[in-house]
Structures are given as C-alpha cells and as structure tokens.
Amino acid sequence: MSRGAKARLKENRPGLLRASLNPWLVRVEDHPERLAFVLHRVTGVIIILYLLAHVVVTNTPARAGWDAWTKLMEEFNNPWNEIGEFIVAGSVLFHGMNGIRLLITEFFGLCIGRPERPKPPYIPPTYRACQRKLLYVVFALWPVLWVIAGLLIFGVW
Question: Structural domain tally of the chain?
C-alpha cells in the first residue's frame, strides 16, 4: 500500500471520540440519522452512569447504615441534583423514543423503503422512506416531553 493510500485510509478513521462520543464534531448536514446515532450513544452513557450512581446510593444503608443514607439524601437535596435529574430525564426520553424508532425500522423491518439500483448522488432509499419521518417525530416530540419533565422535576407544574 502506498503512502498516499495509507494517509487516505487514516483520514477515514476519525477515532472513537470524534466518530461517536463528541456530537459537536459530527457533520450532520442533511444527515439527521447520524445525529440520532450520536445522541443515542451519549444518552446511553448518561443513563449507565446514572444507574451506577443509583446502585451505589441505594446500597448505602447496607454498607454504612441508615444514618449515612439519610445524611447522603440531605446532601442530594439541592438545585444541582435537580439539574442532573433533568439531564437524566432528557436522556431517558430521547434514548427510549429513538430506541422505539430503531425497533420499528430495524427489528420489525418497517419504514425501510423499496430497494433500488444505486445512482448518483447515492441517497439511500431509507432516507426518503418514512424512517426519516419517524426520526423527525422523535426530534419534534422529545423537546416537548423534556420540557414537561423539567416542569415536573423543578416543581413548577
């Protein structure tokens, strides 16, 4: 393999952080599926971190007693905890809604579109099928539900 071919191959492999965990570096012009993919990963990491912290806090009475748990709960009673709950609520809502969309399209095979012969500009038929409409529904419904969750978390509603 020539030196130029190796350089081009390296350009096409941006690495884990750039490709999947940093949504600000992902080019999403006319590719909302890529943004959904990145957000699905980021929200999944947030949910896993929350679940790990939740297991540790819930296990506190068994390790340190009920007094330590009560003290820990008093420390969690602050505005920063509500902001964290708001972020986790948004993550759970997006991850769940996008997961349902992925189940509909990938598991059940609905909204895939008809297969066709590739021709320039090589736009996959799935981008024109109802799969993209489902994605737009997720992107439109998610902020509305997240605002409602925020109103409930912050005690406004």
Answer: 1
